[in-house]
Write a structure and sequence with these properties.
Helix content is about 35%, strand content about 15%. The longest helix is centred in the C-terminal third of the chain and has 30 residues. The strands form 4 sheets. Strands 10, 12, 13, 14, 15, 18, 19, 20, 21, 22 and 23 form an 11-stranded mixed sheet that branches. Strands 3, 4, 5, 6, 7, 8, 9 and 11 form an 8-stranded antiparallel sheet that branches. Strands 1-2 form a two-stranded antiparallel ribbon. Helix 1 packs across helix 2. By secondary structure, the protein is of the alpha+beta class. The radius of gyration is 28 Å and the shape is elongated. The relative contact order is 0.10.
């Protein structure tokens, strides 16, 4: 069987990134596939090396998802939709797109299978309502050539717009224009009308649902359709036009930008969270996953990153679609207002009892608001809390639209399809396309398109214990930022190994007593909080978390959280795949990435190394790092303050200090810098991309002079 020797991803990336934008040469003409073969030949291409490192890893998936949708749409728009059977060999990306648009079971990968003599075709009938679940309408006969966001009219008077397709069905969210607060639209069919299976559907091909203008949404708290949730007037007025034309200005759905529309990620976005900015730097245009167990404070971490953007010129959007929406997003809004961050932020939320369709629509609405600001050349930070709408809606689609070769209502999770040269689970391939298409709306745009950026911090809670079984103890993960000793180790004072045995025994006994009391208090707090954690109902399995890790540009694993010491970040499990190009200039000048290696080496030495001076030195170094990166919730660490702390670490001013001593010494130096060299601190905060100069280094050294 003639099988593809290169993935389609290679072909697409090669065409997009080759010098001058020209298409890559094929090594040879495609061979002919034997009659009866399940596979067709694809043209081979060379994977270019130049320019690949300039794009974020996740952006490699963008073009495949976008082009797959385009080609799948053109195929379904043809005279027939193939339900079973085999098309003639037609090499190229469109053939794979047809396969992905209508997956077929693969029982034996290498066996010859004779196709039927005549193809079985399914003629698309008139569009109609197939089923209704709450505000979600399942439609038949619409076809995947109609893009998401297109307006539809159901029955005599009900309006809606398309959310997504899963052949042979289409999914639309119904809304009632003018029946929401202040005359805004409301989710659902509306009062006095009903939609029933069999009702006719009219597709308004040239009209797409539009969110309110981005300028009208600054400082506002809105719902999935732009309706006010803060008690104010309807953004854009109660009579605003809900439709946009082919220009898609303000459209709730947009195609992700292609490789040629993007710009390399080279500008940092300072989150104000020390452990993130130093260990897993975030660049403007990057897609970063935040994950942890329930109770690890991920919502407060995201809110803190938004609060840090005050005065930076970065526009912010917060999407509360999961656990943060249990109170309708009220808690997050109050935190943002208390931090003085609502002025540059839009909050998009749903009610706690919202359907999955509405949660997915709210997710897309948050992206649309962020894209509206990016289109004007602004840098935007989107904190999505969390991915529930995006993930769970794919399961709803699979349930409501079983494939044509499955019995009604039965989902075959073992069905396999070919995807990018691999044979994988059909639902996984479909979900990955769906997720990738949405996440690829994150990008830094080229100068020709305004040069704006959309950066994503996406929250996902994983199941309790999902990442504990493979580690001997918590300290093996290299968690930093939390209180030293939270993992059961003792915080020994400097010079402990040189003390007399009697003194060591007394100190050890006192520290063990203190530790045990702290552990009991932490367990009591955890037990109290466990009874009222809304995020317990929104956890995802480890396999799904790691699927997101493979799509995004990095992840931050939060292992623990406390009100007094903030977040404990796992060094071993957290990574930014953009790396130093997205890091702040002063931190790069101080070799920030060395801290990751130091912490991991110290933990390995602590667990497996022999006693000696080297072990003591590495333990003290790790302790000092933990002290410098410790941060209480609600505190925002300016880049200048982070630079002072890293300078002290890297220049040896915190040598032989434990965590508490190092933290106190750095706080003293920061306060001194604000009084004696304010111009240096202001310059560091105003120029996050600029390297640390020799003049500034000399002035920072003066802070630690005896």
């Amino acid at each position: 069987i003639a099988r593809p020797t290169r993935s389609v991803l290679s072909t697409v990336h090669g065409r997009a990134c080759s010098p001058g934008g020209s298409s890559p040469r094929a090594r040879s003409s495609p061979p002919k596939a034997r009659r009866g073969s399940r596979s067709e030949a694809f043209s081979n291409s060379r994977m270019p090396t130049a320019g690949v490192s300039l794009m974020s890893p996740a952006s490699l998936f963008a073009t495949v998802a976008r082009r797959s949708t385009r080609h799948a749409s053109s195929t379904v728009a043809s005279l027939t939709t193939r339900a079973r059977g085999y098309a003639p060999a037609r090499p190229g990306l469109s053939q794979l797109a047809r396969r992905l648009a209508a997956p077929r079971a693969v029982s034996t990968v290498t066996a010859d299978i004779e196709p039927p003599e005549e193809e079985v075709a399914f003629q698309r009938g008139p569009a109609s309502v197939h089923a209704v679940e709450g505000p979600l309408a399942v439609l038949s006969g619409v076809g995947a050539d109609i893009p998401p966001g297109t307006l539809v009219r159901l029955g005599d008077a009900v309006q809606g717009f398309i959310l997504s397709h899963r052949e042979p069905k289409t999914f639309a969210l119904m809304y009632a224009a003018g029946q929401g607060a202040g005359g805004a639209p409301s989710v659902g069919a509306g009062s006095g009308v009903a939609v029933s299976p069999g009702d006719a559907v009219e597709v308004l091909r040239e009209r797409h649902f539009r969110m309110p203008a981005e300028d009208d949404l600054r400082g506002r708290w809105i719902g999935a359709l732009g309706q006010p949730m803060d008690g104010g007037d309807a953004p854009g007025g109660g009579d605003r036009d809900l439709a946009c034309g082919e220009d898609l200005d303000g459209a709730i759905f947009r195609d992700p930008p292609g490789v040629e529309d993007r710009k390399p990620i080279t500008t940092p976005l300072v989150t104000g969270i020390k452990a993130l900015d130093v260990l897993t730097p975030l660049g403007r245009g990057q897609c970063m996953l935040l994950t942890g167990e329930p109770g690890t404070g991920l919502t407060r971490l995201g809110v803190g990153a938004i609060a840090a953007q005050a005065g930076s010129g970065v526009r912010c959007v917060y999407g509360a679609t999961g656990a943060a929406a249990e109170d309708g997003g009220k808690g997050a809004v109050e935190e943002l207002r208390a931090a003085g961050a609502m002025g540059h932020t839009t909050v998009v939320s749903v009610d706690g009892d919202a359907s999955l369709a509405e949660r997915y629509a709210a997710t897309c609405a948050a992206f649309a608001v962020a894209e509206g600001a990016r289109a004007k050349g602004e840098d935007v930070l989107l904190v999505l809390d969390d991915f529930t709408g995006l993930v769970e809606f794919t399961k709803d689609m699979a349930r409501l639209s079983p494939q044509l070769d499955n019995p009604e209502g039965i989902i075959d999770e073992e069905k396999m399809v070919e995807y990018e040269g691999m044979i994988i689970n059909a639902l996984l391939a479909e979900r990955r396309r769906f997720l990738g298409t949405t996440l690829q709306r994150v990008a830094r745009m080229s100068d020709a398109l305004g040069g704006g950026s959309l950066t994503l911090l996406g929250i996902m809670y994983h199941e309790k214990g999902a990442y504990r079984g493979r580690k001997g103890t918590n300290k093996d993960t290299g968690a930093v930022g939390s209180a030293e000793g939270a993992d059961g180790t003792l915080q020994l004072p400097a010079g402990f190994d040189q003390m007399a045995p009697e003194m060591q025994a007394k100190i050890t006994a006192a520290l063990e007593k203190k530790r045990d009391a702290a552990v009991k208090a932490a367990e009591a707090r955890e037990a109290e909080a466990a009874a009222k954690r809304p995020e317990d109902a929104y956890t995802q399995p480890r396999s799904l978390v790691e699927e997101f890790m493979s799509i995004t540009d990095g992840q931050v694993m939060v292992e623990n959280f406390s009100e007094s010491n903030g977040w404990g970040i796992s060094v071993k499990d957290s990574v930014s795949r953009i790396g130093t190009p997205g890091a702040a200039g002063p931190l790069k000048s101080l070799d920030m990435m060395q801290l990751r290696l130091d912490v991991m080496q110290a933990d390995d030495m602590q667990a497996f190394g022999n006693n000696g001076d080297e072990k003591v030195q590495m333990r003290n170094r790790s302790s000092a790092i933990r002290g410098v990166l410790r941060q209480r919730p609600g505190e925002t660490a300016a880049l200048s303050a982070q630079t002072v702390g890293l300078f002290a670490l890297q220049k040896g001013y915190l040598k032989n200090m434990n965590a508490d001593e190092a933290a106190a010494r750095v706080n003293e130096a920061v306060n001194k810098a604000k009084d004696t060299i304010p111009e240096v601190m202001d310059a560091l905060d105003a120029n996050p991309s600029k390297a640390l100069s020799a003049e500034h280094s000399e002035k920072l050294a003066s802070l630690f002079a005896a």
